[in-house]
Specification:
Elements (H helix, E strand, L loop, with lengths): L8 H20 L9 H8 L2 E6 L6 E4 L6 E15 L7 H12 L2 H19 L5 H10 L5 H17 L6 E4 L4 H10 L4 E3 L5 E3 L7 H12 L3 H8 L6 E4 L4 H15 L9 E10 L7 H4 L1 E2 L5 E2 L1 H5 L1 H5 L3 E6 L13 E3 L6 E7 H17 L4 E7 L6 E7 L13 E4 L9 E5 L4 E6 L7 E6 L7 E4 L11 H4 L9 H10 L8 E4 L3 E6 L4 E6 L8 E4 H6 L3 H11 L1 H10 L27 H7 L9 H12 L3 E3 L4 E5 L5 E3 L4 E4 L3 H17 L11 E8 L1 E2 L2 E2 L6 E9 L6 E8 L11 H15 L9
Amino acid sequence: MNRSNPINRISLIIFAVVLVTGAIIARLFFLQVISHSYYEEIAQAEQSGYTSLPARRGQILIEDYHSGEIYKLATNTTLNMIFADPTLIEDHDLIAETLAPLLFDLEIEQEIDEKRYNEEYEAIIEIESEILREESLEKLSLKNDEELSKNFQDNLADTLATKTRKVILISEDLDQETQDAIKALNLHGTELTENGNLYAFPPEISDTNHVASELATVFNTDSKDLERILLGKNRYVILKHRLEPETSTQIEEILLEDRKLDAPKFLGIRMSEEYFRFYPEQELGAQVLGYVNSAANGQYGIEGSFNEILTGEDGIFTSQIDAYGNQITVGDSVIEQAVDGSDVTLTIDRAIQLQVERTLASGVNEYRADSGQAIVINPETGEILAMAQYPTFNPNTYGDVFELVEVDIPDEEKEKLYVTGDEENPRYWLYIQVDPDVRIEIFPDEEDPDKYWAYKNDVGPEVYKNKMVQEVYEPGSIFKPLVMAAAIDANEVTANTTFVDNGPLEVDYNVYSEEYDNLIRTFDNQYHGIMTMTQVLEKSSNTGMSFVARQLGESLFYSYIKAFGFLERTEVGILDEVTGKVSHYDTWQAESEMLTKAFGQGISMTPLQLAQAYTALANDGIMMRPILVSKIEHADGSVEEFEPEAISRVIDTESSQMITAMMTATSESYYSLALENHYFAAKSGTAQTYKWGKALSGPGTTIAGFVSYGPIDNPQFLTVVKLDHPRTVEWGSATAGPISKEIINFLFDYYNLPPDKSN
C-alpha cells in the first residue's frame, strides 16, 4: 500500500531539542548572572544543570445543563520522557545497547526508512546513465527489521557521544533592522533564515570570543553569556517523548540498580514527567476545539485562538550537580516557577452538542450530502449551546486525516481529472459530481500509473476548518424572513399586505433591445394569484419577495443588511473567522441584483452570522452577539466572565412578534415537520450553486438549509442546519428540515417545556 510521506520524527525530535534548549538558554539572559570571572563561570557551567519546569496547559471545559456536571473537552495527562546529558556519559555504547531495545519503535523506523527509500529512488531515476541508474536501483532496498534495530542503536550511541551541539537557536522572529545588522557582520558559523531565526553552529566557529562580542553589540547583552552559549555544551538531549508506563518502569529499574554501583554508568540518563494534550470526549466539538500539535502549539478552534492563555509559562530550574550528576541541595540555585495556563469554559452544553452531532452525522449520511453543519444558540443570551460539523476528526489522532485509501476510477471517469499547480508540484482532482464544481484531491501512485489514492475522509486536513465561521455561502430562502422583518419594521408591509402572484417577473429592461434581460421565477414554477405576506413565506415565493424588496428600496434594504450584522464578523473568538460578502447598493448595476438578494441569492454569509441575525427575530428585535466562551479561570485564581452582549435593536418588538407568527404559520405548513405538542417558528431554504456562471439544479447541486426557534412565546433555542449538496433530494425542507425537527424536538424535551399545542 502506498502511504503518504511520513514525518521524519527523529529530525523533529532533534529540532524540538534545539528549540527547547535554545529557549531555555535565551531566557537565562534575563536571570541574575553570578559575579565571578569569566573562567570561573565556564568552570561552573560544567557543574550546572538547567531543567525546564513545564507549565500545565489550561483545560477546555463544558457543562451539562441538567446535572451541572463539568466535562473536560481538553485536558492534560502525563507520561515520562527520557533525556540524556552527554557531558556526563562515558560509555555511550553500553547505554545505547541497553536502552535501544526499550526505545525502539519498529513502525516509526519503518516509516522513516520508507521515506529514505522514496527520496533515494527519486534521486536515482534522475541519473542520466542507464547503466549507473540500473546499478543504483539494484542496490536500493528497504532495511529489514534487524537492520532497522541496529541502525537505531547506532544513532542513539552517536547522540549520547555528542558532547557539543551541532546547532543552536540563538534568537527567532528577528525584526528586519536586527537581521540587516547581523548580515553586515558576516559571522562564520552562523546562519540567518528567511523567517528571521538566527542559528549558530559551534563546530564551525573558530573564534567564539569574536562571534560572541559581535553579536553582543547587536543584542545589547553580555558577550560572556553569549560566548558560553556558543560553546555549545550538549546538555539535556531528549531521547524519546511519551514513554509507555511499562517502558518507564523498566528504565527506572535500570537506573536504580545502576546507582547502587561504585562506578555508575547511567548518570547522564534521566526521566521526567511531561504534559501532553488529551481529549477525553474524542470527536465531540472537534472543530470548536481544534487541537494541539507535536510542538505543543494550539491549532484551529479554541486551542488556536486562546493558545497564549492556555499555554501558560514554563519555569526554569538551575542547580549545582556533583560529579555523578546528582543535585547539590546546598548549592546556589535559581527557580523561576512555572505559571499554569488558564482554564477556558465554553457555553457548549454537552448533552445538546452530543445529540446535535449524532443527528447531523446521521442526516449527512442519509441524504448523501458532502458535509453538514448545525448551530444551536440561545437567542436571549447569544450563548452557543452546540456547534457541530460532519465529517469530523479526533483531536487525539489529528494526523489521521492524512490517511489515504485506494480509489477506483473507471476509464470513463478519468476524463474528469483536473490538474492544478505546476509541473514540479502538480495537484490532481477528481470531480465527483456531474454538475457542480465539487471535487476531491487524489494522488497518483508513484509506481503504478493506473492506481490512485484519496484522503479517507475525502477532504483531508480541510476537515479541521470550522465551516460555521470560516466559510461563507448563499443562504437561499432562509434569508427571506429577515428581509420580510425589515419591511415590516420599516412599515412597508404587514402580514396581511397582498401581492398578486401571476407569473414570472420581468426585470432589467434593456432600452437597446426593448426587452427584459432577466426573469424571476418561483422555485417550482407555481403561481398563486393574490397572496398575503404570510403566504409569501409559506409558499417561499421569489416573486413575492421581489415585491417586498421593491417596497424597501435599495438604500433601506442595504441598511437592514448592515444592521443584521452581515458586513462584520461575529467576533466569536475563533481564528480566521470570515465575514459575509455584500456589495454596496451603489454598485448594483441592475434591479435584479437587489431583488435576488431578497431570496438569498447574490449575498453570502457564514452560518453563525445567520444565527446571529435571527436572534433579533427571536429576541424581541434585539440582536445578541454569539458567545462561545463563558469564563476564563486564571492560574492566580482570578476569573474573567463573559456576559451576554446586545449588539443593537434591529427591529421593534411588534415586528419581531409579527415575523415570529408568520414563521410559525410557515412551520405548520411543512406538514411532515410539524411537532405534535409544540409550535415553533421556521423557514427552509434551498440555495442554487453555480458552475461557470450558470445556475445548476437537481439533487447534488444545492445548499439545503433550515432555521427554527422556539418556544414561540419565549424562545430559548434557535437552530441553523446546513447541508452541502444532498444527493437524495435537493430541497432544504426535505433534508435539512427533518434534521432540524429532530434537534428541536429533543430541545423541547431536554428543557422539559410544557406543550403549547392542543390536540
